[in-house]
Amino acid sequence: MDEPAGIAVFAWKNESLEEYWACTEKALDFGNGLGPTQIVDDGGDATMLIHKGVEFEKAGAVPGPETTNNTEFKEVLKTLAWCLEQSPQRWTNVAKGCHGVSEETTTGVHRLVEMAKEGSLLFPAINVNDSCTKSKFDNLYGCRHSLIDGLNRATDVMMSGKVAVVCGYGDVGKGCVQSLAGQGCRVIVTEIDPICALQAAMEGYQVATIEDTLDFADIYITTTGNFNIITADHMAKMKDKAIVGNIGHFDNEIEMTELEGMTTKTNIKPQYDMYTFEDGHSVLVLAEGRLLNLGCATGHPSFVMSASFTNQTIAQIDLALNAESKPTLSGETYDGGNVYILPKILDEKVARLHLDQLGVKLTTLSKEQAEYINVPVDGPFKPEHYRY
Ligand SMILES: NC(=O)c1ccc[n+]([C@@H]2O[C@H](COP(=O)([O-])OP(=O)(O)OC[C@H]3O[C@@H](n4cnc5c(N)ncnc54)[C@H](O)[C@@H]3O)[C@@H](O)[C@H]2O)c1
Questions:
Q1: Does pTM top 0.85 for this prediction?
Q2: Which residues of the chain have pLDDT under 70?
Q3: Least packed by Cβ within 10 Å: which of 47, 226, 285, 350?
């Protein structure tokens, strides 16, 4: 943005869940009953609010907050009950006017794929996360940078020589493991997927269960996109002053509500708290279990985000072209109800656009070489199923 002044921001640091959902609702209110015609989502909350809004408008009622144990979903229900009272067809109309969403992250894509499978996705979705130039760069190198940044700013603890446990060895986990190992930590990985577990082992890391590590590990990082990875029970058994943080999308990777129920909380500094158990030992938790690289540091640097956002921009241009029934950059026609990935030629273009900045000099295929390996001279150079 050349002149960011005037761009509305519906967020502030330390907002409560109630404030977060009120902000999300306001960000989707363009006045006169209108909403966004296209969405750039990160984690799928905007998309979820619209879809739940439509669902409850159809039903004519929003379930009461007492119908769920999920603290966050209680706030979603309260927000939507208020919306239904104000304007009973608001979300139905917003969904009708929405040409599509492009989704940034793994967790948001899981939600979209679920909706597409059950036939409830109301507009086309482009999965930006699974462009190679997103997940194999932002999730990996971005987290490799910002995990350690968050840990250093919050804890000021010497990492060298410590035992760090990284839960999950997907793209984010791989980046986190590299940065902790780079600091001289002895890294242990936990995994459920035999392929990722084997990868970790063959990179030279011990793979164990979290239970195996509780009495000696110093640092725990969750990267799974799953929930209840570190339970309050685990933390009760951890070594005194073990550091616990999450870099996956949602705060439910760590059982925070249960931890709060079992301990006394002492704030050390903003976004860093000590939780003391009755037996006197404590754990140190970053950013209250939320994304520690955003809570305790400033997230990923702009270079790696540029690759992610170039994909987002292409996806948004395509959704706009598609809405006007014009030829899209990908050549795809995007139907409501489906989730799409940008084709490899555009993925390669995103990478190509970032080469000069790093002084990269690419080799050009000769016509004969291109024919020999059966690819076009200008790409795409790999089949869609290629794994980098
Ligand atoms: N903080 C950030 O800046 C940032 C950036 C990108 C992605 N994310 C988020 O990070 C999370 C992970 O993303 P990813 O792209 O690495 O996903 P991924 O699917 O590549 O990796 C997650 C890994 O966790 C493993 N896993 C699942 N349940 C587990 C369990 N119970 N114990 C141990 N391992 C388990 C999976 O097998 C998988 O290998 C997502 O929530 C994503 O949205 C955060």
A1: yes
A2: 1-4
A3: 226
